[in-house]
Amino acid sequence: MIVVRNQVAFQIYGRYALFTDPLTKLGGEKMSYHLPTYQALKGITESIYWKPSIIWIIDEVRVLNLIQTESKGIRPIDYNGGTNTLAYYTYLKDVQYQVLAHFVFNLHRSDLAYDYNEEKHHNIAKRAIRRGGRRDIFLGTRECQGYVEPCDFGSGVGFYDTIPEIDFGVMIHGINYPDETGKDELSTRLWRVKMQYGRVQFIPPEACTMTRTLGRAVPKRFNPEEVQSVHALHAEYFLQRGE
């Protein structure tokens, strides 16, 4: 298990998940990867707690339940013609994962340096996990509602705990955004995924060698008036408790 300073551990679960394989979108059909991607877990963690001054790094995920899929007939809206079309989406069913993550300060956002306070961000993140997240949790897509609660990573019995290795091949790792890289471009990352004894240890974004540039993009700028500082959030919490 990877142990990192300011790390958090949480469990996510839900009836269905759809971590979409981009290759299946071409004809309007969608099929889920068998595992959540780094980017999907990062998005879930950001729904629990996020500020533009920090970047969440996903360290590890543990798969607890048997990987099983279910296909459903869907009538998505055709926004060009204003009518419905027919499609089949293949979801993961009855999913449950344990996640380890930590954050680093976004050094490309020097305009938000006043919000660099590791201890307060860490404490707020842990409280947000206990409350089930600050925003709604979705498992890959909006129709797949997820639920979050604290956990001791590695606790309990997982279906794949005794299986030495499963190779899932090349998958999407994540997306490089300009406000996190300092480059005025958007790009995707790929990597080869192997699950060992039910766990996947993620390589960091900068270690991904398979990348593809999608186009030009620029980071969003924030004014101090638009971002509530972590100090204010921390003080607000204790004020609500009457302390």
How would you portray this structure in words?
The chain has 243 residues and is α+β, with helices and mostly antiparallel strands. The protein has a single domain (8-173, 192-203), classed as Alpha-Beta Plaits (2-Layer Sandwich), CATH 3.30.70.2660. It contains four helices and twelve strands. The protein has helices spanning 38-48, 118-130, 178-181, 230-240, and strands at residues 8-17, 30-31, 54-63, 69-74, 77-78, 83-84, 87-105, 147-150, 166-176, 185-195, 199-201, 210-216. The strands form three sheets. Strands 1, 2, 3, 4, 7, 8 and 11 form a seven-stranded mixed β-sheet that branches. It has a three-stranded antiparallel β-sheet with strand order 9-10-12. The chain has a two-stranded antiparallel ribbon with strand order 5-6. A hairpin with a 4-residue loop joins β5 and β6. α2 crosses α4. The longest helix is centred in the middle third of the chain and has 13 residues, at 118-130. The model has no long low-confidence stretch (mean pLDDT 88).
Number of strands: 12
Sheet-strand content, in percent, reads 35-45%
Structural class: alpha+beta
What CATH calls the topology is: Alpha-Beta Plaits
CATH architecture: 2-Layer Sandwich
Regarding CATH, which class? Alpha Beta
Q: Sheet bearing the most strands, described?
A: 7 strands, mixed
Q: How do the SSEs run, as a string of H and E?
A: EEHEEEEEHEEHEEEH
Give the % helix: 10-25%
- Kindly provide the radius of gyration, computed on alpha-carbon positions and rounded to a whole number of angstroms: 19 Å
The end-to-end span amounts to 37 Å
**Tally of individual domains:** 1
Tally the helices: what do you get? 4
Which of globular, elongated, flat, extended, rod-shaped describes the shape? globular
Unreliable spans: none
Mean pLDDT: 88
